[in-house]
Amino acid sequence: MILSIIAVAVDFADLAVIDLSKGSAPEGQAELVQQVRKALSEVGFFYVINHGYTPSETARIFDIASLTFDQISDEEKKENARKDQAVYRGYKLRKEWLIPVTILYSQPIGGLEILSEDNKWRWIKHIDNAIVRNFTY
User: Membrane-spanning residues where (predicted)?
Assistant: First the structure.
């Protein structure tokens, strides 16, 4: 099999990078508050870096979490599905989440685009070991 690589110009979204390592000092905390406020009010998306997990720890977390989805049958998942809609405990069936918060680990593959203020779709650039946060209302 021969694979072709095609270079295409891509428009990337200009997202704020929130560095949590600045939060250890009061002046850094104030700066983080302002950065997050601006990112949420202008775009709704931002990167989070220096969140405390190394790439190997993140990979281990994903390995452990995947067991929950890969090693448990759908029947057992249904048994553990929440019955009361007023509480947020237990397993939820697909398409049942109502919380407008997205937390994504940045990956070196294309896939996430956001609609910018100029009504153009822009790609999210990969930043190694960053988390992409989105809050919507």
Answer: none
